[in-house]
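$ ./design --mode recover --in tokens.txt
reading tokens...
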């Protein structure tokens, strides 16, 4: 991997969790297909960070 990615991936992972929380609350209040899909994509990205795929 590129050197800049190794430095910034922990920052991206740290920002991604609050975004997932906000998107989850938004999906609970105003559910629609796009919100559910976006939450699923964010969850998969965070899961990839937890399992060190990225």
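writing sequence...
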């Amino acid at each position: 991997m590129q050197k800049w990615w190794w430095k910034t991936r922990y920052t991206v992972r740290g920002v991604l969790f609050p975004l997932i929380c906000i998107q989850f609350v938004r999906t609970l209040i105003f559910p629609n297909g796009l919100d559910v899909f976006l939450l699923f994509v964010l969850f998969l990205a965070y899961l990839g960070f937890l399992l060190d795929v990225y």
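exit 0
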